[in-house]
Design a protein that fits this description.
Layout: E1 29-32, E2 35-41, H1 55-72, E3 75-86, E4 95-106, E5 109-117, E6 123-136
Length: 148
């Protein structure tokens, strides 16, 4: 397998891909300038401890929030660095919100942040990260192709 400079979305992303049979199928929307939001409810297959989402799934939510914020800013990229902070258990079977925002742009690197919030806007987890730009998309969109 060769690594491409530009990343390509074939709809099979575990986090957001409509063609992923086992994925989260997150759907983000533009919520502000370079700011995105998605609502989801995690079910039992994504559980770690009883009633609580697995930490790797929570990290996936945070990473995906940043990726879609990059798309809203007009970039496709790959995660270069991510620092996660778990604050409260992320519940299984209850609605949660995933948010992502671009903080800064320097050359081919984006600084981003994301968070997962629960009922009453309680902060459950947060992350800061850096993405390496691997292509452009139309700014103000999520950069997700129409795959039919």
């Amino acid at each position: 397998m060769t690594v491409r400079d530009e990343v390509i979305d074939d709809g099979r992303c575990f986090a957001c891909g409509p063609k992923s049979e086992i994925g989260l199928r997150l759907r983000f929307s533009i919520a502000g300038d370079q700011f995105v939001r998605a609502q989801t409810t995690l079910e039992q297959p994504f559980q770690g401890w009883v009633g609580v989402a697995h930490g790797g799934i929570v990290m996936t939510l945070l990473d995906e929030g940043m990726a879609h914020a990059a798309g809203a800013a007009g970039y496709r990229g790959v995660t270069g660095e991510i620092k996660v902070r778990f604050r409260n258990p992320v519940p299984i079977g209850a609605p949660i919100i995933v948010e992502g925002r671009v903080l800064w742009e320097r050359g081919r690197v984006l600084g981003l942040e994301s968070r997962v919030v629960g009922d009453a806007d309680v902060l459950l987890a947060s992350a800061e990260g850096r993405f390496v730009v691997r292509g452009r998309v139309t700014p103000g969109t999520l950069g997700v192709p129409d795959l039919g």
